[in-house]
Design brief:
The chain has 171 residues and is an all-alpha fold. The chain has helices at 3-7, 12-20, 22-27, 35-41, 44-52, 58-65, 68-75, 78-98, 105-113, 119-131. It has ten helices and no strands. The two termini are 22 Å apart.
Length: 171
């Protein structure tokens, strides 16, 4: 677990409220500093804590990025928008792995994002690497997984033959 978990370790209810509050922050008319939205969604500790929390997971985190359109034109520059979309697409491409094993988040981020030379992405990857410093893990030296700018949207697993219909649910 990340720094947010450590801050709220004494109160799991406060941590749960904090992790659930992203949408409330963005749509609240009282919330003026929407740059906090960007800062939160580019922080590795937030991503890790949201994915590891039993009430949320990777799909809830992906939905947090859907709020980009509520914040977009008024507060974020084009590069920030692009970075948020890259991170969201990375989570979408990795969801079939991370939902089964959240410890794979670091490797998935590194394997998909390291080819993008934006300071905020580089900081996210550095923080992810630092979080894994006491663990043995394979760190890709080059982007070795499908990158977020590819045409692939999602990978569905568990099928033994062709798929003829799809039903999409929030989870």
């Amino acid at each position: 677990m990340g720094k947010f978990y450590n801050l709220y370790n004494d109160s799991p209810i406060r941590l749960e409220y904090f992790l659930a509050s992203v949408e409330n922050l963005v749509i609240s008319p009282k919330f003026q500093d929407k740059v906090v939205y960007y800062q939160l969604l580019t922080k590795f500790d937030f991503l890790e804590d949201k994915i590891n929390h039993p009430k949320f997971g990777v799909e809830a985190l992906i939905r947090d990025y859907d709020l980009i359109h509520e914040v977009a034109e008024e507060t974020l520059n084009p590069q920030q928008l692009k970075i948020l979309k890259f991170i969201q697409r990375t989570l979408q491409l990795s969801s079939h792995i991370v939902s089964k094993d959240p410890t794979q988040l670091v490797g998935q981020l590194w394997g998909r994002l390291q080819g993008f030379n934006y300071p905020d992405i580089e900081k996210l990857l550095k923080d992810a690497e630092d979080s894994n410093s006491k663990k043995t893990w394979l760190r890709p030296l080059t982007p070795s997984l499908t990158t977020p700018d590819s045409p692939l949207i999602r990978t569905f697993t568990g099928h033994n033959s062709s798929v003829t219909a799809v039903s999409v649910t929030p989870d």
